[in-house]
Specification:
single chain, alpha/beta, 7-stranded mixed sheet, 20 helices, about 25% strand, globular, binds 5'-O-[(S)-ethoxy(hydroxy)phosphoryl]adenosine
Length: about 675
């Protein structure tokens, strides 16, 4: 460790440990620089070398096309992602290797080998086929963290079906919106899932989304029995998972699909009230998630890798399922909460399975710090050799704690920056090659041309804040925002909602991908991610749009108007604050306050519930009628006006008097 001259503060730096670098896939800074240079200057040969390591049913002839805002990769190539995640490993003699060590929250466990995972996938794919589902159809998956979740995803991919996984923390309304947007023909779910000793009623939530025939596209609901909680099965529509696979053969011919065939849709929050269906393609997504997994997590045949994310988010898609299985790596999968039954559940699991590579979110690490060092100290964590973080900026103190207490003072840490839209990690240390600085995601991965620019697209000076952009496409880049008809006969050459896609990512600075994050680069060119520049909040690493919460609140009969902002929270990074004006006949009360908080929880999901909800006679607005979010943020942060409503009125009045019109 050395003290380097930072730009604003003294920054510690950590060089890759010598032993680690010696055995690493990428073992020196020079090697990284050369890979990065080649990937941009000679992309054809760089990517050919990588893609040659995968199974293609038809080789690609052209690396990429870039027709703003659309990109296509590995043109003319055909493949099936599941062959690359399963069949080829079994054929290479790894059939008995463990794909997942699974741990249920109540303590039940299962081990699934690559052969079993392939057979389960095939049986279930045959079951889906028997329902009449065909390549290109959309299938919603709403499941707990059990092995059947990756099985369901892989079975879809094997048939060319497009899965849309919905995080189990979302409620009925969110399910309905997503099912409708994608016109899903089937939903795969479970009776329930365990969370902190309670059953999450997943099937009931699905039923709630399907009431009153609000989702006419849904023909089938497949239900896995996990918790044996009481549920209703609709005649002719609902079928038990086990009945569906009964008698199905354990092999299933994989559908050879063009590299651009959509693999999945994953909804994520943006600046409007309506989440965007981010579409990823089989070929580019496979290559990028596999390569990033291998180099960033430095995966070796004996590694036991554990990513604690939920598969319902992109981190789980890329770094529990596809990228990790593509490397034939043994993963750990855990169903429940980190503090159930006690705050050392994670460390017990690391100890039990001898986890070597551990990937989690800063919000979890902040909770561990709060719970106290005694919990990790109770366990032997010496199997760990590499740690990772994702989802939010990590505070340097938190980074240092992670390294010291979890990493035994010696594990490198990879702080990985990416997004649902990027499909894979784009800015990150490569642990054997890049010296780390706590709080910095360091440098772009090979193939990634990243920069920090001003509003005109010019690079800002070192240490100045600007907008994070990616200047050319990469293999797992978002292919578009889903719109009905995508990839269907009669819609050839259409890739979803072009205007929404273009406006969202390529308009503000024409022609480059705008990530929506503010960042700066230091004197060494290292990237420091500051946070979102749009109205997207990051609550415990989960993305949520303020507009989504606002449009939810105004659906409540008592609410006239609502403004939602994020404010700093010690554990979750950001928390949701809502400011609400009531309709004439409604009175402010603590009951109504609680009711509105629950309303958001029930309509969207518990994790979005406002931590602070305040009534106000009026929202502070500019003369042009824009809500002055900065003032609200100050109120929520300083907490000054809790229990009194006059200040808000004053501020609205002050703002109007001063004619503050340029707000945001
Ligand atoms: C934030 C999660 C700082 C960022 C994979 C981004 C980060 C958003 C980091 C995407 C990081 C992700 N440091 N911020 N290492 N990783 N973010 O789509 O604001 O759920 O735009 O994807 O998370 O969130 P998403």
């Amino acid at each position: 460790m050395a003290e380097a001259e930072g730009d604003q503060v003294q920054v510690s730096t950590f060089e890759p440990p010598v032993d680690f670098a010696r055995d690493a896939h990428v073992g020196s800074f020079e090697q990284y620089e050369e890979l990065h240079r080649r990937s941009l200057e000679e992309p054809e040969s760089f990517w050919r070398e990588i893609t040659d390591q995968f199974v293609w049913t038809k080789p690609w002839t052209k690396l990429r096309e870039w027709n703003l805002p659309f990109t296509r990769w590995f043109v003319d190539g055909e493949l099936n992602i599941t062959v690359n995640c399963l069949d080829r490993h079994v054929e290479n003699g790894l059939g008995d290797k463990i794909a997942f060590h699974w741990e249920g929250e109540p303590g039940d466990t299962r081990t699934v080998s690559f052969r079993e995972l392939l057979e389960d996938t095939c049986r279930f794919a045959n079951g889906l086929k028997s329902l009449g589902l065909q390549s290109g159809d959309r299938v919603v998956i709403y499941m707990p963290m059990i092995p059947e979740l990756p099985v369901a995803m892989l079975a879809c991919a094997r048939l060319g079906l497009v899965h849309s996984v919905i995080f189990g923390g979302f409620s009925s309304d969110a399910i309905r919106d997503r099912v409708q947007d994608a016109s899903a023909r089937a939903i795969i779910t479970a009776d329930g899932g365990w969370r902190r000793g309670k059953v999450i009623p997943l099937k009931d939530n699905v039923d709630g989304a399907l009431t009153d025939d609000e989702c006419p596209s849904v023909e089938h609901v497949v239900v896995y029995e996990r918790c044996k909680n009481e549920i209703e099965m609709a005649d002719g529509r609902d079928i038990w998972w086990n009945d569906l696979i009964e008698g199905q053969p354990a092999d299933c011919e994989p559908e050879s699909v063009p590299a651009e065939h959509p693999l999945y849709i994953l909804y994520t929050s943006g600046t409007t009230g309506k989440p965007k269906g981010v579409v990823h393609a089989q070929g580019g997504y496979l290559i990028q998630t596999a390569l990033t997994s291998k180099w960033i997590f430095d995966l070796k045949p004996d590694d036991i890798y554990w990513c604690t994310a939920d598969i319902g988010w992109v981190t789980g898609h890329s770094y529990i399922v596809y990228g990790i299985l593509a490397n034939a790596t043994t993963g750990v999968m855990y169903e429940g909460a980190p503090d159930y039954p006690a705050p050392d559940r994670f460390w017990e699991i690391v100890d039990k399975y001898n986890v070597t590579v551990f990937y989690t979110a800063p919000t979890a690490i902040r909770a561990f710090i709060k719970w106290g060092d005694e919990w990790p100290e109770k366990h032997d964590l010496s199997s760990l050799r590499l740690l990772g973080t994702v989802g939010e900026p990590i505070n340097p103190d938190v980074w240092l704690w992670y390294r010291r207490v979890i990493g035994g003072g010696s594990c490198p840490i990879v702080d990985t920056w990416w997004q649902t839209e990027t499909g894979g990690i784009l800015i990150t240390p490569i642990p054997g090659a890049i010296t780390t600085k706590p709080g910095s995601a360091t440098l772009p991965f090979p193939g990634v041309d990243a920069d920090v620019v001003d509003e005109s697209g010019n690079p800002v000076a070192p240490n100045e804040r600007g907008l994070l952009v990616i200047k050319r496409p990469w293999p797992s880049m978002i292919r578009g925002i889903y719109k009905d008809g995508w990839g269907q006969p009669g819609h050839e050459g259409e890739f979803g909602d072009r205007d929404r896609f273009f406006d969202q990512y390529f308009k503000r600075i024409e022609g480059v991908y705008l990530a929506g994050d503010a960042a700066r680069r230091d004197n060494d060119g290292y990237f420091w991610i500051i946070g979102r520049v749009d109205d997207v909040l990051n609550v415990a690493g989960h993305r949520i749009g303020t507009a989504e919460v606002e449009s939810c609140l105004v659906q409540h009969p008592a609410v006239a108007e609502a403004a939602v902002i994020g404010f700093p929270d010690e554990i979750t990074g950001e928390a949701v604050a809502a400011f609400v004006t009531l309709r004439g006949s409604f009175e402010e009360s603590s009951e109504l306050q609680a009711e509105l908080v629950n309303f958001v929880g029930e309509r969207i999901g518990r994790f979005v519930r406002p931590k602070l909800l305040r009534f106000t006679p009026a929202l502070p607005k500019t003369r042009s009628g824009k809500i002055m979010r900065r003032l609200l943020r100050e109120i929520a942060t300083s907490g000054k006006v809790v229990g009194d409503t006059t200040t808000l009125e004053d501020m609205a009045a002050v703002a109007a008097l001063q004619g503050i019109d340029e707000e945001e």
